[in-house]
Amino acid sequence: MYLPHFLLPLLILQAKTACAAIDETHFSSDNIIERDVAILGGGASGTYAAVRLSQDLNTSIIVIEPKDRLGGHVDTYVIPSSNATVEYGVQSYMKYGNAAAFFARLGVDIAAPNRRRLTNVNVDIETGAVLGGYNPPASTASTEAMKRWLTLAEKYESILEPGYWNFPAGNAIPAELLLPFGDFARDNNITDMAPLAMAISNVGIGGLKEVLTIDVMQAFGAPIVREFLAGTMFVPVGSNSLLYQRAHDLLRNDVLLRSRVIQTERDGSGVRLVVKSGDVTNRLIKAKRFLVTAPPSITNLKPLSLDPKEKAVFTTWTPTWSFVGLMTIPCIPENYSVSYIARGSAPADHLALRNYPYTLRFDSTGPLGQGLFRVLFATNYTISNEEAKGTIVENVHKLAAAGTLNATNSCKADFLAFSDHNSVLRRVSVETLREGWIQKLYGLQGHRATWYTGTLFGSDYTSNVWALTDTVLPRILKDLQ
After folding, report:
1. Quick check: do 31-78+236-317+426-480 and 114-232+318-425 share a fold?
2. What is the 3-state secondary structure (H, E, C) of 96-140?
3. Omega before 296 cis (within 30°)?
4. pLDDT band at 3 (very low <50, low <70, confident <90, very high)
């Protein structure tokens, strides 16, 4: 192919820039940080790993976090002129693994959740009118189905929790794990647990029936079901953010907030990371090992200069868009919950509740008299924060237009807080799983001095993530030796 001569210098410059080595002489000694382990992400797994490594395992660390705080999906709203707080992100925790002990070590007391009884109204997601033809399962039927699901999930707990270190390959994968969940649920008479499973885990956006059973178990597996049925979940006394505030106080000198990696060099001997922190001069981090805890989307990992082995795995993730917020919605009474569901679920197709491109729910949060509602909104298509807000408000207006809950057209919904929890999902085919996809995923552990933890390598709950991290850290330490 012929190229004009005036383009050649530009292409050469671009090529040099793309593969330019990090020049350590460009950094002053004050801006070079040397550590045993650099941690990308200060959410649940990153914060936990940082505390465990630095305080328990005699390992120096540095945490790189793009937000202005630690805590990831923990979102706490402080009511103005009050010490009262409302949790609109993470809601509660399981007494699984080291979870309760981790709160204790940071001096945060725990207690049973104060569950508020809400009156739930199911509305047609297309119109906002009450979907009177849908008959949800009775609570006793839902509980019995949940118990049957737990028995089924516990059969595979040893290969799924915490993490997939022992997961089989090829034809050794249990066949029922690879069934579409709709078939599995009907075969095992557990369809009555589907509404609760979707509400608790947020699984099945766009439709639950075709999601593989193994992926439903990732989202709503044995540990969470067991604790839900036993009623042993807990919350911190104060707020969910308190744990991460205490962790930041402990780690302060080893945490870079409002920071992002812009260039990397990784090989078997260690990593070098160029980090941009706001307007501060770029820093160079030199670490023996690198622990990635951020969601492994191609966008998040782009600065890591992925090699073909890594791209072969990470390009298979499915993006997901998920949002949480706190709103005032005068046309919904306090102590009410409004669930938008697909009209095809009537009269009793519990697996079809989410047969729609997005899902939406409003829950009254209290304190009483504040008119506050937690909003949960998620889509299976690309959407910006502002577009998400617009769709949420549009659905409030549908309630008013339909006269639902005696709503009026004057209903004005306002956002007090809003946060995106966008990530990626593991949604690969049966054939891809049988070809060893999970083994390839876990084969990246330690590759190019890089290790991974977080929800995409295990289950999507804080306590599970901490338990998974406790299986990764000893491997990192052995690798360092």
Report:
1. no
2. CCCHHHHHHHCCCCEECCCCCCCEEEEEECCCCCECCCCCCCCHH
3. no
4. very low
Cβ–Cβ under 8 Å, residues 261 and 304: yes
pLDDT bracket for residue 150 (50, 70, 90): very high
Average pLDDT over residues 276-304: 93
Q: Does the pLDDT value for residue 16 go beyond 60?
A: no
Checking if the pLDDT of 278 tops 60, the result is yes
Backbone angles phi, psi at 22, to 5 degrees: -75, 125
Confidence of residue 8 (pLDDT cuts 50, 70, 90): very low
Contacts of residue 18, Cβ cutoff 8 Å, sequence gap at least 6: none
What letter represents residue 393's amino acid?
V
Q: What is the pLDDT of residue 412?
A: 86
Six-digit token pair at 368? 């009483």
For domain 31-78+236-317+426-480, say whether CATH 3.50.50.60 is its number.
yes
| Percentage above 70 pLDDT, the chain | 95
Q: What are the pLDDT digits (tens) for 185-211?
A: 999 999 999 999 999 999 999 999 999
Each domain of the chain, given as residue ranges in start order, spans 31-78+236-317+426-480, 114-232+318-425
User: What topology does CATH give the domain 114-232+318-425?
Assistant: Polyamine Oxidase; Chain A, domain 2 (3.90.660)
Residue with tokens 């925790």: 93
